[in-house]
Amino acid sequence: MASINQKEAFGVGTGSLASPKVTIFNLPVGWFLAFAAIAIACMYMELLPPGLIGALLIMIVLGELLGWLGDHTPIVKSFLGGGAIIAIFGSSYLAYAGLMPESTITTITDFMKAGDFLNFYIAALITGSILGMNSKVLVQAGLKYAFPLLAGVVGAIVLAGLVGWLVGFTLQDSVLVMTLPIMGGGLGAGAVPMAQVYSELLGKDTSYYMSLLIPALALGNVFAIIFAAGLNVLGKKFPKLTGNGQLIQGFTYEQKELQLDFGKMGIGLLAAASFYMVGTLLGEFIPIHPYAIMIILVAVVKALNVLPASVEEGASQWYQFVAKNFTLALLIGVGVVYTDLGAILAALSIQYVVIVVAVVLGAILGSAIVGKLVGFYPIEAAITAGLCMANMGGTGDVAVLSAAKRMELMPFAQISSRLGGALIILLAGLLVNLFV
């Protein structure tokens, strides 16, 4: 199928109610607000139909509105996770304060749970992100990159466990509820599936774990950005510790440009659903969470290079389509269904913040020390294998690398967020059995 211009593919025309330079959801802001008015009016008139149309419409509209506000609000956009955090906590507040009709809450809840929208999103993300990894990055970085990445995780667990013990937290709370979500792959790829794993294995409702995981993730992102700026200053004072954006001497990276192909995206949808079902099937016989099985399976298939290029490209394109168009919608569902504001406020304390700082510092120290031992520059290793594990996934990568003034490290940041995040979900499924 011939490639198609992306603006044409998404139907963005030249007519406008407002300047096309300001857009929301790929639309001139005036046109988007017109569509949003229809959805919000139907919500308050309680005319939203149950199921896919009503739920997805209002979730996209609210997600994009709140996300846009978060991404354009000073401080919030730079240090607090931007639109993702506003989408979650804004929608959670609407439900908590009674500003969202009960019929809408029910529609969203049914779509997220009975409609399985959450697993639909996660399947696309896991399959596409791993199969879409650039093989040149993996070959050039080699297995050596795994050492500082793992060391960052170990450092975070050890320091958080120690500090947690000193301030009166249990090892279970310090490691499972705080360290692992911070070191995971953000919200959609980390905290959300992790909460489901915990719910199934530890017994309490998913919303209980989300209420603890999300504030840890948000605070971890804040401190990751702050420490990234600090590492940049440290590099200027001690030049021997940094390669000024170079992790491996002589390494060059070229991002492959994918041509938009709707046929391949259909293949990607099929591949994502199939890998998810294989993970579910094997989960009936193997005592590991299906997400973990799926991650292992996709990673092995990618490493063995057994899939046709069309499947890998399709999975990557489908993942990018889902991530681009449905992420903020999903976060509305997370806020409404899985985020209990009362429990979150009760969880926050000085001790809680201290442990979050310990997680981020542990990630920096572990990755920097081991990174130096395997021949990497310590500051670059700490930023990529440490802080890009402790932030909020893709958006966190941009924020951390921007604060560190090392955007050229994005390929390694993506390894941390994608494969590293997948590793944390796998680790969570394994470690949780030690605390049961």
Quick overview of this protein structure:
The protein has helices spanning 6-9, 29-44, 52-71, 76-79, 83-96, 102-112, 117-131, 135-141, 146-167, 171-182, 187-202, 206-237, 262-283, 290-304, 309-338, 341-347, 350-373, 378-390, 393-404, 410-431; strands at 23-24, 27-28. It is an all-alpha fold and 436 residues long. The chain folds into two domains: 15-115, no CATH class; 118-248 and 256-434, no CATH class.
- The SS-based structural class is mainly alpha
Order of SSEs, N→C?
HEEHHHHHHHHHHHHHHHHHHH
Beta-strand share of residues: under 5%
Give the biggest sheet. 2 strands, antiparallel
| Number of domains as seen in the coordinates | 2
* DSSP helix fraction: over 70%
Q: Given the structure, what is the number of helices?
A: 20
Q: What's the rounded overall pLDDT mean? A: 83
Q: Give me the Rg, rounded.
A: 21 Å
Question: Unreliable segments (pLDDT under 50, ≥5 consecutive)?
Answer: 1-18
Form type: globular
Number of beta strands: 2
What is the terminal separation in angstroms? 51 Å
Strand order of the largest sheet: 1-2
Task: Give an overview of the whole structure.
There is one protein chain. The chain has 436 residues and is mostly helical. It has two domains: 15-115, no CATH class; 118-248 and 256-434, no CATH class. It contains 20 helices and two strands. The chain has helices at residues 6-9, 29-44, 52-71, 76-79, 83-96, 102-112, 117-131, 135-141, 146-167, 171-182, 187-202, 206-237, 262-283, 290-304, 309-338, 341-347, 350-373, 378-390, 393-404, 410-431; strands spanning 23-24, 27-28. It has a two-stranded antiparallel sheet. The protein is globular, with a radius of gyration of 21 Å. Mean pLDDT is 83; it is low at 1-18.
